[in-house]
């Protein structure tokens, strides 16, 4: 069964999401940006969500995690929780 590890940043607005994505692409550390800005409890671990399989996360999240290139920041991804930046750190198909 497919498994992935990923980290994310959750914020309430698309504007904030784009601002943080630009900061990360400009060299800011993803984990530090997550700790400083994410509203998800995973922010304490730098946004690390650990390992999970398809169907364990919301559909919009799953779609990106199981198709995006590794180690590239994706987003904004809108879900019922807000706007996410996602980075898939590993995947086994």
Could you write a compact summary of the structure shown?
The protein is of the alpha+beta class and 93 residues long.
How would you explain this protein's 3D organization?
The longest helix is centred in the N-terminal third of the chain and has 12 residues, at 14-25. The protein has three helices and four strands, in the order βααβαββ. The chain has a single domain, classed as Roll (Chitinase A, domain 3), CATH 3.10.50.40. It is of the alpha+beta class and 93 residues long. The chain is globular, with a radius of gyration of 12 Å. The model has no long low-confidence stretch (mean pLDDT 97). Helix content is 29%, strand content 34%. A hairpin with a 2-residue loop joins strand 3 (73-79) and strand 4. A four-stranded antiparallel sheet has the order 2-1-4-3.
- Shape, principal axes of CA atoms: globular
Q: Any idea what the radius of gyration is? A: 12 Å
The major pleated sheet works out as: 4 strands, antiparallel
Number of helices: 3
Largest beta sheet: what is the strand line-up?
2-1-4-3
Structural class: alpha+beta
Pfam families: Rotamase_3 (PF13616)
Organism: Stutzerimonas zhaodongensis
Domain PpiC: 1-90
Main location: cytoplasm
Which short descriptors sum up this protein?
93 residues; 4-stranded antiparallel β-sheet; Chitinase A, domain 3; 3 helices; alpha+beta
